[in-house]
Amino acid sequence: IVRWPKKPFDKQVVIKWLSRKFKFDKKYSKKEVNNIIKQNHSFDDSALLRRELISKKLLTRKNDGSIYLRIN
């Protein structure tokens, strides 16, 4: 990902693509999630992408942010 799209449809396509980088039934730490995101984008905003994954219900996390999971 070289830039965050402006169109909502394009954002959805990008975030679904990014979600496929995470395995089902695997627990991820915040650091692991950030590392996967960093490996797949170049505009330096991991927090934005992490929040998008969660808000679009492609990833979930514990309330304390310690564990992240990909949602079916």
Topology at a glance:
Layout: H1 8-19, H2 30-39, H3 46-55, E1 59-61, E2 68-70
Helix pairs in contact: 2-3
What does it look like?
The chain has helices at residues 8-19, 30-39, 46-55, and strands at 59-61, 68-70. The chain has 72 residues and is mainly α. A two-stranded antiparallel sheet has the order 1-2. A hairpin with a 6-residue loop joins strand 1 and strand 2. Helix 2 (30-39) crosses helix 3 (46-55). The longest helix is centred in the N-terminal third of the chain and has 12 residues, at 8-19. The N and C termini lie far apart (23 Å). The mean pLDDT is 95.
What is shown here, in short?
The chain is mainly α and 72 residues long. The chain is 44% helix and 8% strand. The protein has a two-stranded antiparallel ribbon with strand order 1-2.
SS summary, helix count: 3
Shape: globular
Helix and strand content put the structural class at mainly alpha
Count of strand segments: 2
Q: Going across the major beta sheet, what is the strand order?
A: 1-2
pLDDT < 50 runs, ≥5 residues? none
Percent range for helical residues? Answer: 40-55%
Keywords:
44% helix; mainly alpha; two-stranded antiparallel sheet; 72 residues; single chain; 3 helices; 2 strands
